């Protein structure tokens, strides 16, 4: 089974932002040693408890601290930026780290309305222009597909020997069809979606139009998973993640609580039901249980690869979770 890692650089209540970012680097190194295929960094803006607003900056450092694992963005939120600048940044990364760079893009704001306005005065307008932004970005990444427009003679220098691999990330039919239309690989965020992912991915596969004869559809399924030596331990670890997610949805902000603090968090009946629903969307268990569930999802969603996001209070528990999953699922 081909597995990868999505990291959001979450900050625990006993950490600083710097320590959380250092944990991301250690996780990338561990992922490489364990045989994970990719390590992607997410982009968030002014969200308490998340330390990375600029994945491209982190990737430049992670690239120097690793050797062969593919590294990328999960995702650059394209409506905030001009495609030319994004192409320049990722061509630079691809020049520094040949054959290792993934450019994942998405359309979400990644933060509050205030943060969105501070980043871009025309975000909603840019969201509507997303299909054009994607096409423009792909043209800057690949001169073979440049059209006769105002930027026809413009290059996103430096031009790497191996271009960044473009990905579209999403949770909807709209994103799946946009990826298919442009011959892009597609990453479906199952861990943050209530949509019918199986149907969405089928639409992507059925609608895929390659830009080059060698291109074929490729699907990553991104899931939330926590693995421990015992099921009981895994469920205990998940409590901090679940309560933290609830706190964020209520606008309480803050950092990942410890197990003790999370267990003592007062819940209404509706909140208990909400957490039970979220827990069903996660994979929680011992190595055998997690492997079985991952295999089921891979078959159900026709995924070429599964990307795992893991949130725990203790960074060592997170790395241990990835270690247990790798030993059970990755063949070296």
From TrEMBL:
GO terms for cellular component: cytosol. InterPro entries: Bact_Lucif_Oxidored (IPR050766), CmoO-like (IPR019949), Luciferase-like_dom (IPR011251), Luciferase-like_sf (IPR036661). Residues 1-300 form the Luciferase-like domain. Pfam families: Bac_luciferase (PF00296). One of its GO terms (molecular function) is oxidoreductase activity, acting on paired donors, with incorporation or reduction of molecular oxygen. The keyword Oxidoreductase applies. Its EC number is 1.-.-.-. The keyword Oxidoreductase applies. Gene3D superfamilies: Luciferase-like domain. Keywords: Oxidoreductase. It comes from the Bacteria. To bacterial alkanal monooxygenase alpha and beta chains. This is MsnO8 family LLM class oxidoreductase.
């Amino acid at each position: 089974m081909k597995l990868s890692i999505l990291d959001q650089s979450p900050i625990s209540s006993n950490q600083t932002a710097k320590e959380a970012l250092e944990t991301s680097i250690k996780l990338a190194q561990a992922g490489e040693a364990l045989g994970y295929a990719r390590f992607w960094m997410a982009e968030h803006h002014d969200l308490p408890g998340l330390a990375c607003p600029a994945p491209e900056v982190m990737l430049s450092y992670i690239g120097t601290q690793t050797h062969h694992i593919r590294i990328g963005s999960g995702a650059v939120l394209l409506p905030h930026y001009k495609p030319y600048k994004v192409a320049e940044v990722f061509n630079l990364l691809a020049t520094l780290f040949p054959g290792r760079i993934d450019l994942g893009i998405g359309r979400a704001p990644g933060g509050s309305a205030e943060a969105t306005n501070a980043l871009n005065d025309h975000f909603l307008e840019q969201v509507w222009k997303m299909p054009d932004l994607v096409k423009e970005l792909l043209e800057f990444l690949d001169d073979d597909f440049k059209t006769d427009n105002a930027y026809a003679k413009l290059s996103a220098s430096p031009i790497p020997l191996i271009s960044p691999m473009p990905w579209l990330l999403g949770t909807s039919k709209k994103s799946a069809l946009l990826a298919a239309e442009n011959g892009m690989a597609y990453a479906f965020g199952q861990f943050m979606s209530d949509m019918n992912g199986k149907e969405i991915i089928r639409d992507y596969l059925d609608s895929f139009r390659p830009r080059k004869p060698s291109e074929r559809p490729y699907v990553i399924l991104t899931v939330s998973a926590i693995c421990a030596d015992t099921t009981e331990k895994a469920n205990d670890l998940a409590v901090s993640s679940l309560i933290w997610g609830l706190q964020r949805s209520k606008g309480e902000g803050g950092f990942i609580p410890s197990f003790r603090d999370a267990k003592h968090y007062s819940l209404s009946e509706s909140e208990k039901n909400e957490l039970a629903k979220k827990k069903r969307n996660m994979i929680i268990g011992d190595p055998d249980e997690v492997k079985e569930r991952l295999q089921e999802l891979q078959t159900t969603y026709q995924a070429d690869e599964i990307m795992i996001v893991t949130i725990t209070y203790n960074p060592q528990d997170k790395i241990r979770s990835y270690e247990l999953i790798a030993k059970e699922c990755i063949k070296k």
